[in-house]
Amino acid sequence: MKAEEGPKHVEKYPVLEPGSRSHDRRVTEIKTYETPQTFHAPDRYSDWKERKEHLREILLNACGLWPMPEKEPLQVEVFDRKEYDGYSVEKVLMRTLPGYYATGNLYRPLPKKAGDSQRYPGVLCPHGHWPAGRFADDERASVIRRCVSFAKQGYVCFSYDMVGYADNRKLLEHHFAGDREKVWGITPAGFQLWTSIRGLDFLQSLDDVDPEKIGCTGASGGGTQTFFLDAVDPRVKVSAPVNMISSTMQGGCDCENPPSIRFDSNNMEIGAMMAPRPMLMVSATGDWTKLTPTVEYPAVRSVYELYGVPQRVEWYQQKMNHNYNLASRQEVYRWFRKWFYPFRSPEHFVEPADLQVPASSELAIFPGHEIPKDALPKEQLFAKIREIDRKRFEKYLSGDPDEFRKTYGSAYRDTLAVEEPDPANIKVMSSKDFEVAPASPETGTWNLETFLLSNPVTGQEIPAHLWSPKSTTPDAAPVLLVHPEGKAALLDEQGFPTGSLKEYLDRGSPVLALDCMGTGEFVNDASATNRGERKGHFPTYNLTDTACRVQDILLGETYLAKRFGKPAEMVGLAGAGGWVLLAHGLADRSASTTVDLSGLDTTDDACFVNNLYIPNIRRVGDFVTSIILAGKRPVKITACQDETLRTRLDRAVKRTAES
Question: 46-113+120-351+371-375: CATH homologous superfamily?
C-alpha cells in the first residue's frame, strides 16, 4: 500500500465546531518549573517503597545514567597541599568520564599530633549558581567558609565545580546540551549527578574518611544536586539541601531539569527519597522556600512517618532572601554534629564571624596547572559518550533477553512515559453519524462516525473518524490508520475514502483514523511551535509532540480492541511510520504493526532530532527496543532506505524470533 502524500487537506467532516479550540489538557495545561505542585506520601509503606524504587530509576534514566555506567578505576590527582589554621586544602582533578574531569578542592582537618590515623566523616559540598561557583565568599553565600568550617570541625570536605563553573569552564560550558545531546541523554544534570556519585567514591577511597559516614549539603542549584544524589545513592547518610525543596519552583537551570524527571513528580517527592536517613530542610522567607514550614516540610515528613522516624527530618527558616549565609550554615553544622558527633560539645561546631579563609586564587587549579592531556573538546567528548552508550546497549542486546527487557525495556517505558490506557477510562464525545455514498454505485457506501476520542486520566481529546464498510468481513481485524497530516488526508477532494483507507475498507475492515497531536484539526492549537517543545525546560514537565502521538496511537488501538472485541492492526503511513513503530512495543493489545519508514534518515541522528524528538530516545534503543518489547507480535517494515537503520531493525526482528 502506498503512503498518501500531499498538502494539508480540507476537513470535510470536522469534529470540532467551527472556531472552537481543543480542550486537550496536553495543549491547555502546559506545565513549567513554576507550576504549583502538591505531594503527600501514599497511605502504605509498601506503596512508597515501590514508588521510590521506580522514581530512582526514572531520575537515573532522565540523567542518562540508566543502566548505570560502568565505573572506571578512580583517576584522581590531588596536589598543591597548603596548611592553614587547623586544616589543609588541596586541589583535585578527577576523571569522571573518558575525556572529562571534575575540578575542586579537598579540605581536611590537620591531625592533632604526628602519626594520627583518625578517620573523619566526609562531606560533599556542591555549590549553587553563585557567579563565583565554589569560590563564592560573601555575606549571601560562602562555599569557602562552609568548607573551612567543616574541616576545622572534623570533616573531610570535597568541594567540586558544577559543569562549566570556576575551573571547569576550561573543560566544558554549563549550557552545553543541544537537541542531539538530549536524544542521547547527555545533559548538564547527568554530568553533575555522575560527578557527585564519583565524588562520593573519591571520599570513600580516602584513608582518613570513614566510608560509612558521608554527608552532603548545597544551596540553590547545589541543593538540587544534593537531593538528586540523596535520591539515587544510599551512601549519603545525612543531608541538608538548602533553599531548594519547593512546591512553587522546581529549579530554573538546565542542570536542574533533566528531561522527563518531573512529568508526574516534583522536588518534594524527590527530596523525600532521603527517608529514613536524616535530612534538614533549610529555607528562607524571601524565596521559593517560604512555604517550607506549612507545605514542603509536612509533605516530606509524611514519608518519614511511614518509616516511623518523623524526628529525622527538620526544617529551619530565617527571614532572608535566597542564601547560604552564616545563619543557614550554623544550622547545618548543628544538624551534622547531631548525627556524626553526638557526644561532642555543640560549641565546637560554630563558625566564627571573623573566620579567616584562603583567597580564591589559592584554591584555583587553572591556569597554574595544565589541562589534562586526555581531556576532549566538546564534540569529541559527546561522540565518545555516544560510543560508550552504543556498546553498553549492544552488550545488553546480545545478552539475556529478560535482562534486556528489564533494563532497557524499563528505560524505554520511562523515556516515552506513555502506556495503553485502561479501556474503562476511554470516552467518546461529540459523536455524529454519516452515510457516505460516492456517485459510482459499484463503489458502495460507507458508514462514518466522527467523534472526540478521550481519556480523562491523561487529558487526551483526539479528533477521530471511524469508517465502516456496509458489510464487514467477519475475520477482518479493525485497523488503526495513521497519516502524518491527520484523518482528512485519507480522503479525496470529494470527501471519499481513497488510497490505503479505501483498500482496508474494501477488505471489510473498520478503520479508525486519528488526528494525532499537532496534525489535522489539532494544527491550529497544538503544533510543535505552539506547544514550545524545544523551548526552556518543556520536556522536563511535558510530553513532546512525538511522545503525545505515540500516546494517541495507544489510545486508538485500545479503543478498537474494546469496540470490536479483537486486537487491531496498526498501520503507519510514510511520515507517521516512526510514530507507530515507537508505539509498537507498548501496544500489547494490538495484533500487528505495519510501518512505512521512507524518508527517515538516522545520519547524525537527524530523524530523531528533527522528526521524532523525544529526549533520551536514542540512548534507550529507539525502534530496536520497541521491537524487542513487542516480542513475537508481527511487525512489517517497508520502504526503509537508510541502510544502517534497516540493518538494526532486521537484527531486532531476528532477535525476537530467536527468543
Answer: Alpha/Beta hydrolase fold, catalytic domain (3.40.50.1820)
